[in-house]
Amino acid sequence: MKRDVLVEDGWILEPPGDAEFGVVMGWFPDAHSVDIWGGPGFRFPFTRDSFLEDCKVEIMSSYCLRTPGGEIAAFGQYYVRQGRAHLARLISNPGLRRQGAARRLIEMIIRSASRAGNYAEASLFVYRDNAPACACYFSLGFSVQDYPDDAKMKDECFFLTRPIEIE
């Protein structure tokens, strides 16, 4: 999959390397935090190899967002699901939360996805009880849609979509 490097206002969205994956791995203190982020099939404790395998880095576009000062601010992925750019495994650096990194990450991943393919919409799943994430996604124009028949965890998660503006 094509993975752009995007730069906006000094923020850089780029594919992660080994060092960046190591930083992201340190953001998870327990199995519950990994479950909320990666889903119930994501192993914890993890090794570098199991983390990369469970992230499906070979088939999903993965990105790190860096602050203008170079600090890793967030991580996220996308893949194609039902003709949409489907966002997955979105997380911001715990030390930088509530500073807009998640919003910037999502917008920049959507821009990168729209450059790589012709998607009319972005989509994602979110646990219904993850209030901070839900608030962020709703503020970015995502709305609740009918849950896909082929998806698991219908009673635990929302399925959200939003239009992608053409640049």
Q: Explain this structure to me?
A:
The protein is of the alpha+beta class. The chain has one domain (6-163): Gcn5-related N-acetyltransferase (GNAT) (Aminopeptidase, 3-Layer(aba) Sandwich). 29% of the residues lie in helices and 29% in strands. The protein is built from 5 helices and 8 strands, in the order E-E-H-H-H-E-E-E-H-E-H-E-E. It has helices at 18-25, 31-38, 48-55, 101-116, 131-139, and strands at 6-8, 11-14, 61-66, 72-81, 84-92, 121-127, 143-145, 157-163. Strands 1-2-3-4-5-6-8-7 form an 8-stranded mixed sheet, sandwiched between helices. The longest helix has 16 residues, at 101-116. The protein starts with 5 loop residues before the first strand and ends with a strand. The mean pLDDT is 94.
